[in-house]
Amino acid sequence: MKRIPKTLLLTFLTLFLLVLSLGTASAADAPKPMKWVKGKVEAALVILDKKVTAELEKARNAELRTLIDSIVDYDDLARRSLGDHWEERTEEERTQYRALFKQLVELTYIDRLGDKDQDVKYTVEWDSESQTASEGHAIAFVLYEDTETELEFILKPEAAEWALFDIAIDGASLEDTYRRNYSKIIDEEGYPKLVEKMQKRIDELEAKK
Q1: pTM over 0.70, yes/no
Q2: What is the pLDDT of residue 100?
Q3: Is the pLDDT of residue 110 over 70?
Q4: Which of 113, 128, 116 is nearest to 58 (CA)?
Q5: pLDDT tens-digit profile of 48-72?
Q6: Domain of 180: which CATH number?
């Protein structure tokens, strides 16, 4: 079975890459989980599907970044990506890490979308949803040739809206993946080594722009 193309997977990770703060309001008056998620997908795809010249590509990416920034709380995502190691960091280290993390996320999941193949044919099938007073779930399947990839969107209430808290790809949580990889580096090589590796990756991605 063929794997889902990397650029297509990056597209969906960009659409949903985690999270607003948890919020404390009831989800009773929020839209249904699937309706909320589909609205975010459609808004992002309008931007992604624009056929632009090289001169207009930066403007399109800036527009996409504005959309993503409106639904992503980078500070909260940065904190959760370090798990227990966050409490061990000084305030100066936290400030440094937040800045590196946001830059790395943007370069990985936004700027690289300039490589998206607009001729790739895929179908999104919205499967099911569930909702409680404190959480919502929406499940979709991305169908590409003979590949079926399950995406589960985990939502938390935020005022009268939802906030995307996490996304599971074929059952693997994106937040857990970040935390597992980063914690392993800190445990085995130390926090300064993690910062070094993040900066090196940022420099590599910047060089490709």
Answers
A1: no
A2: 95
A3: no
A4: 113
A5: 666 666 667 777 677 767 766 766 6
A6: 3.10.450.710
Residue owning tokens 């624009």: 50
Which residues, listed in sequence order, are joined to residue 138 by a DSSP beta bridge? 129, 153
Strands 147-158 and 123-131: unpaired
1 in any annotated domain: no
Long-range pairs of 177-183 with CB within 8 A, sequence gap ≥ 24: 178/80, 178/81, 179/80, 179/81, 179/82, 179/83, 182/81, 182/82, 182/83, 182/85, 183/82, 183/83, 183/84, 183/85
Domain assignment present for residue 75? The answer is yes
CA dist 160 → 27, 29, 36, 142 (Å):
7, 6, 11, 28
Whether residue 31 is contained in a domain is answered as: yes
Which residues span the domain enclosing 49? 6-208
Contacts of 125 (CB under 8 A, 6+ apart): 140, 141, 143
Q: Would residue 110 count as lying in a domain?
A: yes
pLDDT for res 21: 30
- What is the number of alpha carbons within 13 Å of residue 42 lying toward its C-beta? 7
* Number of structural domains found in the chain: 1
* Length reported for the chain: 209
